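Researcher: Going back to the complex we discussed earlier. I've cleaned up the inputs and rechecked each line, so this should be the final set. Can you rerun the prediction on the complete assembly and write out the structure?
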Amino acid sequence: MTEPHSLTPTIKFCSQCGSAIEYRIPPDDSRLRAVCTVCATVHYDNPKCVVGTIPFLGDKILLCKRAIEPGYGMWTLPAGFMECGESLAQGAARETFEEACATVDLIEPVYSLVDIPHIGQIHIFFRAQLRDHDFAAGHETLAVALFAHDEIPWQELAFNSVRVALQSFIADATRGEFNTHHHVRTLTVS
Amino acid sequence: MTEPHSLTPTIKFCSQCGSAIEYRIPPDDSRLRAVCTVCATVHYDNPKCVVGTIPFLGDKILLCKRAIEPGYGMWTLPAGFMECGESLAQGAARETFEEACATVDLIEPVYSLVDIPHIGQIHIFFRAQLRDHDFAAGHETLAVALFAHDEIPWQELAFNSVRVALQSFIADATRGEFNTHHHVRTLTVS
Ligand SMILES: [Zn+2]
Ligand SMILES: [Zn+2]
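Model: Rerun complete. Updated structure for the full complex:
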């Protein structure tokens, strides 16, 4: 079994002893790993989860205008990297509060999952009922606003995973039944 | 916002320059992070995904008897850490092949998700149709076997997330409808 991807090796020194790393395939493994040349610790690089919500109030969806790169000035759903010690739902609610100052009631189970293998990320969104109109731009946000389904700024969305989540949500809302969706974002070669 | 967990800090040296780490809260952040005392790189520690399958053939489910710790000699579903560069489904199929030498057709969307915040893991299982009876114990497995729903060795399962996935699967199979399930495993204080 060979290395299926070409993600750039990013580990140069051992986080346990500070010595130099070399990339080699350990015994009983089939992949190149960052292995310490002194203490032999194997350092694994694993995909990261981005968690967020599709916050809604009546027939409208809350979007955030990004105040940071990537996607400065573009619209997005509130989302960010999941932290150790929290659940997917806790992370999604936390990001919603941080970016949109909004309190939400999450709807289980998880709603939209998008794999992005070439950057080692999984983007996971929950549907989330906004408690009220008490929301505002957080530190990483220029503005927040509610959009009707036919008002979504499709040409100004920051991320493909946000587009996919919104498309699923609006299609499901239209037919009146919500199911979990899972997509894989492949690298487009053009 | 305070640190919601007590996971042990594990990063001692900077993976970029090899210098000593100190744990502090960076500007514009609210959590303790491993920050390099020389190059100022912030090192994040994120939850890891474990991916696997519930392989079935007719009315039976394939389980693997573990040849490694933790859970040596206990039964489990084929699963392991997701790798960078692969999708959730590719990781689940890879682990099924590595541990049970079995080829499966995965059923979308993802079926069982279990958050385990206190160890920073998410365990994600797909339902997976076994192509045939061509399966065998892989390197990390002592034995593989098919179990009818009333033959599952509940007292000898290696992991709670496997128990949860099997319970959901058997309940859904009994009522004849499968939906995605999401649970959070909280730390039991006894
Ligand atoms: Zn080392
Ligand atoms: Zn450094």
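Model: Worth noting: Chain B touches chain A through 53 residues (CB under 8 Å).
Researcher: Good, that matches what I expected from the previous run.
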